């Protein structure tokens, strides 16, 4: 996937949130940084972190202290602090703009916000009763915020439609909009209700900072230019300083301009330019690194870049910045797992959240061990990277104390790791070109490889001896693999069904080539496999007969589907940008249809987990969100049972259950036990039979010999003629 965020759909951002049978509850929005801000004195740095802001006190640059943080409704792409009102203005991607009161900086409170046309990524400025927002493609928009809770749109000024506005600056009554290859346009906002173009500058501009009547603009073409903007209709170049690399942003403090340089080589980092003589700016030094978003003021500077750090520089000697400290930031959530009141994810470390309050999920535990995908089993979590590189560990974390998760042990997979499922004490890992690996973590300090199947081998037959395991799922004694066919010269695309009744010897039962999807994820539940089509939809495959699967239904969706999870006849699909979370009714497998949605999500809908009526959406750089849906019940279905079931079996039971089934005129077969979610538990064979009935015995254990938890369970004969439900106490 491409995360350059060049998504410029011209829509009303806040109004674009649309929903059906799904409501937004809350979020933990922190992730990759796309913006920085500062106050005038420089003691506070506002770090845009995904769909959130982290406020750092850098009074002592060597010891940055997090004062507070808050989540927003979308990626924070621009930040502006208004000193006179102690208000922080932020743009929030699809969420328009938000206004936060920082009178008590330790306890920010949201006091308002509004929708904008397009994506507000070019900048935001507060000035008394007005807020000015620069949209990527839709120009400068002005709002009256006399009442911050109900901003009123009062005017706008379009910009050159052939170019995109990624940054800007405001000085006095003018907003200077950088249009990269489109140069710079100057918008006069002296009459807020009637902003107009006052002038243009035709060279390439990526970043701009304006002090008095001088604009400092940067580009990879010329480095830094100083411009005389005293007459906006007649902008002239007054000085030039060649700067190698890729100058991207610029901040001026006193007699120095600090340039964020995004060159990955030796020229990247922070370029320091002496501008004491604006007509003759001079490159003084470069602090090496990769500086993309910068905020300089007072005696400190902070920048973020391609890594997961906010770097603090000491500017006590302005011409010679030195490293003072770094502050670790979250990065990207591609997967999450929820169990009860806790949510688990990998995001620049292993993170545990208390989600008791759905409106305000709180991180309570952290371990520096990095990864992405998590699945829990009792007091343990199995944890892997979603990585296309080699040598990736399959890790076991101790989550007995959620506030203090600890790494217990790991199996070092020599290849990539792409997906994960856990059953009992086994971890099933998809390894893409290396097929699947099954790891036993019964001894969590020493996980061991049990088996390896469908991996590439020289001389092997594609689609027969090996496949590309994009994702997998386990249901009962079967493991399902989806392969989207990444290489046209190799015939591997399909749904693979493996018998894992003996986990040490997985056996390929069938490769089903009749799928139409570009399969990116799958969920196997009972007799069906649900496939997330990355080209835009969800497909249903009937696997009742494992040797003869049948394509049953398909539901088109707005965007590329990244993941699917199914519960109570509803499939929850993470549908990337435009689709957000899509809820597909699969009660009729031949005709799945969208029964609910919330779109877009705020950033990138990557994967979803469901617990009760709540949907937990991993939103990429935007952290995660929690939604509620009316399409499923708050608890598992309430199967109220009589003292004796319709087939005469005792109910409830604790350790031993006899099921008596009438089979007049029939031969007894197997009886399949599943739990209330439809997950396979075990298979029963008759223990006694006469002409009128057959008796089955169940000891309450799974097929692998583990005790089941109390709850409702279902039984069904292979031909469907016998079925019922029981409760284990």
Arithmetic mean pLDDT: 91
- Side by side, the strands of the main sheet go 1-54-53-52-51
Tell me about the biggest sheet? 5 strands, antiparallel
* Helical content band: under 10%
The number of distinct β-strands equals 64
**Cα end-to-end separation:** 47 Å
**Number of H/I helices:** 1
Question: What amount of the residues lies in strands?
Answer: over 45%
What overall form do the CA principal axes indicate? elongated
Based on helices, strands and strand pairing, what is the structural class?
A: mainly beta
Gyration radius, in Å: 29 Å
Ranges where pLDDT stays below 50 over 5 or more residues in a row are 1-15, 635-651
Q: What would you note in describing this structure?
A:
The radius of gyration is 29 Å and the shape is elongated. A hairpin with a 7-residue loop joins strand 49 and strand 50. The chain has 1 helix and 64 strands. Helices cover 1% and strands 50% of the residues. 53% of the residues are buried. It is mainly beta and 729 residues long.
Can you give me a brief rundown of this structure?
The chain is mostly beta strands and 729 residues long.
Name the features.
1 helix; mainly beta; elongated; disordered N terminus
Per-chain topology:
Elements: E1 18-20, E2 22-28, E3 35-38, E4 44-48, E5 52-57, E6 65-71, E7 76-82, E8 87-92, E9 97-101, E10 109-114, E11 123-127, E12 130-135, E13 139-144, E14 152-157, E15 167-171, E16 174-178, E17 184-188, E18 196-201, E19 207-211, E20 214-219, E21 223-228, E22 236-241, E23 247-253, E24 256-261, E25 269-274, E26 282-288, E27 293-297, E28 300-304, E29 309-314, E30 322-328, E31 336-339, E32 342-346, E33 350-354, E34 362-367, E35 373-377, E36 380-384, E37 392-398, E38 406-413, E39 419-423, E40 426-430, E41 436-440, E42 448-453, E43 471-475, E44 478-483, E45 494-499, E46 507-512, E47 519-525, E48 528-533, E49 537-542, E50 550-556, E51 563-567, E52 570-574, H1 576-579, E53 581-585, E54 593-599, E55 607-611, E56 614-618, E57 624-629, E58 657-662, E59 671-675, E60 680-684, E61 686-689, E62 693-698, E63 711-717, E64 723-728
Antiparallel strand pairs: 1-54, 2-57, 3-4, 4-5, 5-6, 7-8, 8-9, 9-10, 11-12, 12-13, 13-14, 15-16, 16-17, 17-18, 19-20, 20-21, 21-22, 23-24, 24-25, 25-26, 27-28, 28-29, 29-30, 31-32, 32-33, 33-34, 35-36, 36-37, 37-38, 39-40, 40-41, 41-42, 43-44, 44-45, 45-46, 47-48, 48-49, 49-50, 51-52, 52-53, ...
